[in-house]
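Justification of resources, computational component.

The compute hours requested in this renewal are based largely on the per-chain cost of generating structure records like the one below. Each record pairs the submitted sequence with a full C-alpha cell output. That output is archived, and it is also reused by downstream analysis tasks.
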Amino acid sequence: MFSVLNFLKKKDSSTVFVGDMWAYFNLDNPGRRYQAFVQNGHQRFSKFIDSLLLYDKAIIPTQDYVSLTALVGVLGEKTVIDLLESGDIKFARLKGAFGYIGNGGGIQSFVISKDEKHGLKLQPFGDETDAVPWALEILSPKPREIKLITKLVTKNVQTIEATTIAESIRHETYTDILNSPYLRNRFAIRNTHMDRLQGINPNQVRMCGGPDSPNTLGDEIDIVMEICSSNLELNLAQRTGCKDLSTTFKTGHFLKGKAERAPNLKSVSSFLRLVEVGGVPDPSSYLLKLSQGDRQKRLAQLLKLKRSGKGKKFREWFHGNHDQNPDVIVQKYIEALGKIPWISSVPAKIMRFILTGGVGLAIAGPTGAAVGMAVGAADSFFLDDWLKGFSPKIFIDDLRQVFKES
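The structure output for this chain reads:
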C-alpha cells in the first residue's frame, strides 16, 4: 500500500522526481499537447535546469514520451543524448492512465492497447521502440539520432503498470478528500457517494490531462482527478527512490494537510538565493533566453561542472546543510566565507602541514591573527570539508565563470 510516510523515509537526496516535466496524456492531438506544454513551460524548464545542478539524477514521468519530445525541442538533441548517456536523467513510464468512470466506476486505471482485429497499431502505448520514435516525429525537423535516443531511453526507463497501483491511488485520493472538512462538505452538497459524483454520464470517462489541458470544468470530478494525479506523482517518486519532487499542480488550501506530510521542494529557491549572493545570474533564466545552439554549448559547460568533483562536493554540502531552507543555506554559505577569509590563498599542501604537523607554529595572516587561532575558531564541519579541498565558494566561483560573458 502506498504511503506518504513511506515516501518520507527515503534518505537519499541525490535523486529528484520532476513531476512538472510530465506532459500528461490526454485525448487531444499530440502536436497541440506538445505546443501547449512548451508554451506554458518556462517555469517548469527553469526548475528542471536548476535541478540538473542540484541533484545527481532527475526522474521524468511520462506515459507516451511527449515529455521527451519537449526536452529535445527546448534543450536540443545533443544535450538530451548527453543527459541520457551520463544517467543524469531517467524516465518513470506509467503504462496506462487514470480516469473517473461514470455509472459508479469512480477512479479506475485503464490501458489502451493494439487492435489486432482491425490492424490498428497504437505506437504511443507500445514498447519504447514504437513509442519513442512516434513521440520524436512530432518535431519539425525530426531529430537525426532517433535510433540512438530510443536505445538510450530503453536503458534509462522504469516502467510501472497502472493496474498494479490503481487500488492504492484510489484509496489515498478518497481518503484525502474525506479527511478534509472543506472538501467533505463541498462534495456533500451534490453527492452521496465518491464513486457516483455529479457531472458525468454513465458511458463517459473523465481523465486528468494535466495542467495544460483545455478541457477542465473545475467541478468535483476535476478536483478528484487533480488529487489523484498528485498521489500518482508521489507514488511514482517513491517507487523510483526519490526524496524530493516538484509538481505543477496547485491543489489549494484543502491539500494543506497533505502538504504538511509531503516534502516541499525548496531546493531550487535556496539555490537561487545562494547564486544571487555569489554574484551569479540565475542559470536557468539565462539559458532559456539563448538560441538553442548557444544554449546547448552553455549547458555542456554546466553539466561538465555538475559532474566534476567540485559539483559532487557542492551537492553533498548543499543537501547536508540547509534542510531545504533558503535562509539557512545562505547563512551557512556566508559563515563558510567568513571563517578564514584569507586562507583560501594558501596552498592546500602547506595548510595541511601547518594543521597536522606544524603544531605550535604561528604564522600570522593579513589580520595579524595566527593560523592556529584562526583554525581553532573555525567550525569543524567547514574545516573538515576545507581540508578535503572543498569550499562551497569554489563551486560558485566556477559557476560564475560559466556565465562570465553575461
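Residues 1-12, 252-257, 259-264, 354-388 have pLDDT under 50 and may be disordered. The beta strands are 15-18, 57-62, 89-95, 97-101, 106-110, 157-161, 205-207, 244-246.
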